[in-house]
Amino acid sequence: MDRPFSTAFSTVVEQTVPYDPHPTPDPGPVRVGLVGAGPWARTMHARMLAAGPETALAAVWARRPEAARETAEPYGAVVAASFEELLDRCEAVAFAVPPSVQAELAVRAARAGVPMLLEKPLGPDLDAARRVADAVSEYGVVTQLVLTKRYHPATREFLRRAGEFEVIGARSCYLHGAFRAGELATPWRLEQGALLDLGPHLLDLLDMAVGPIVSVRGSGDPRRWSELTCEHADGAVSQASLSGSVGLDRARTRVELYGPSGELTYDTAELDHEECWPVLRREFAAAVRSGAAGPLDAARGLRLQELIAMAAGGV
């Protein structure tokens, strides 16, 4: 005998959707505070964090209150009167400031137990970077690096393929003309040059695609052109050219791997960098909620800064 429709329906519901007497409330987007109100903070950080749905821009603090207001107002974020107030208003903090400022404030955020979205380089020099990484380790806070290209699907596919490719030599470059003029020609970039600013991106790709770098020799003037020779753990050798002072219409990042089976190439010329931001935002929010950092954390930032110091003759 057939059961009434209502009885059959309730049976299906009971079997497929178990009753939870204590449902976990949705925590909503991660409330992120932004430190900085310069061009990179406005064009990338604020816009990305406010876009959601995984994050929300909760507050902005900068040493110039008027700049902080201009950055916060389009997204309805609060302007914090101090760094401490910013930490009180957010669950996590993102940095878009010069390396020397980040290195100082990141240690304070770590002591407060606040997860951090960190820019590269971690600090202006290796000692400052170590202080950041040590504080992160001591206080057990979640961190993530804004190594932009690593969040693009094409980069991840290249690195996956590189893991299956025998490399005996590699050539690479990261070149643009942003240091010549414009908003990104900031004092620290003009003083330190491409090695500190662009070097982390390219060294990260070579370290992952070719194999762990064991030594780096650098030559040239970082404010004009730097040339790096890297030796890798398996005996492969790679070259890296860096400049922010050449007359190019758009930035050029290219990695060429060579081995017995031929060539494997990565080129950002046709990549849409807007594809990076949703991935970065999603993975940062997931790390904050889970309390577990991914591989692109402060320890990775310290590793890259060690390589930069090696290239500069600092170790």
Mean pLDDT: 92
**Strand order in the largest sheet:** 3-2-1-4-5-6
Looking at the structure, the CATH topology of the largest domain is Rossmann fold
Number of helices: 12
Strand composition percent: 15-25%
Low-confidence stretches: 1-15
Structural domains: how many: 2
CATH class bucket of the largest domain: Alpha Beta
Total strands: 12
CATH architecture tag of the largest domain? 3-Layer(aba) Sandwich
Helix content: 40-55%
Q: Helices and strands: which structural class? A: alpha/beta
The H-and-E topology, N to C, reads as HEHEHEHEHEHEHEHHHEEEEEHH
In one word, what is the shape? globular
Distance between the termini: 84 Å
The CATH homologous superfamily name of the largest domain equals NAD(P)-binding Rossmann-like Domain
For the biggest sheet, the summary is:
6 strands, parallel
Rg estimate, integer Å: 23 Å
